[in-house]
Amino acid sequence: MTPNPHLRRIDTHFHANIQLRSRSARAKIASALLARMRHLDILCSTEHVYKDPLAAFDFLDSIVRGAGLPIDILPAVENISREGVELIQIAQTRQDLAALLREKPGYALTIEDLAEKGTVPFISILPHPYSPSKTGAVTGLGKDRAKRLFDRVDFIEAGNGAFFDLPRYVQHRPAMAEKIKNTETFPRAELPQSVGSSYGSDAHFPSELGLHCLLPVRPGETNFEALSKRPQMEAASSDETINANKHLRLMANLGISGVEYLQKQVFRVVGAKTVRDPQ
Ligand SMILES: [Fe+2]
To answer: Does 274 map to a domain?
Structure first.
């Protein structure tokens, strides 16, 4: 636990990345995760909408429960708008996540409609707004529309672990370096006062876990209720992040982006029909 028992260590952006993996590959991921997630009290399972977020949540929840770890897994999705911009949505329960995936299917809605609250409650986080790819709001929508969106979400991702320490590797490309710098650390002055800030690892592999933040949770309050207050959370980091080999991480990220691009295209063709287990 953290020294202050009311501050819970939360990673708000994590991909189990188990789709298309064999049973033995999943078992390896499970044991690596169990060894590397102990710096957390809460892990948000934010699998991409095109990579079966319900199965990702079930996987994480079952391994944590099976090992008896005191870590809460929150059911969530990294959804995607019609424009291709991503939005994390955290649900209160697994059942709500399933309902949310029916109410807000991937690629079906504008980013504003995706962020709008409907019948299923959720907490929204705008991830990596300055990401060099068009999944980030600023790059995907342009600065003006993105800035209007900043007021319509619960949180803006103030730091993304996948970009941690990367700016110095792209100094020879100033425009790219600027976007990566603003993804690693969102410009504080652009954060609206009433909007919370969060930090997530955006890990796709257990070895990338590390960056997280501290959520104030009052006695008797649920994690979801605490998040609903939109706190501007402090960043925290485990040693693994600092020691990780950034060259390897950069290569791994490029590899995973290529695979996810293909998975996205398949999802767009078959649409939300791929959402399994819609209970
Ligand atoms: Fe992500």
So the answer is: no
Structural domain count, the chain: 1
CATH of the domain at 183: 3.20.20
**Nearest one of 151, 157, 154 to 226, comparing CA atoms:** 154
Give tens-digit pLDDT for 149-183. Answer: 999 999 999 999 887 766 666 767 788 888 888 88
Which residue range forms the structural domain that includes residue 58?
Answer: 7-268
How many A from CA of 241 to the centre of ligand 1?
Answer: 16
> Cα angle at 183 between 89 and 215, to 5 degrees?
50
Within-domain flag for 73: yes
* Beta strands, E only, 92-250: 122-126, 155-160, 196-200, 211-216, 234-237
110 with 79: CB under 8 angstroms? no
Backbone angles phi, psi at 103, to 5 degrees: -75, -35
- 216, part of any domain: yes
CA of 144 to the centre of ligand 1 (A): 23
Nearest to 106, CA basis, from 129, 88, 124: 88
Per-residue model confidence (pLDDT) at position 279: 40
Using the mean position of ligand 1's atoms as its centre, give its distance from the Cα of residue 4 in Å: 29
Please check whether residue 53 is in contact with residue 23, taking contact to mean a CB–CB distance below 8 angstroms: no
Give a yes or no: residue 279 inside a domain: no
In the numeric block, the tokens 């997630």 are attached to: 37
Cα–Cα dist 258/141, whole Å: 22
Distance between Cα 219 and ligand 1 center (Å): 30
pLDDT in the model for residue 108? 96
| Prediction pTM value | 0.88
Find the 117 Cα to ligand 1 centroid distance in Å.
21
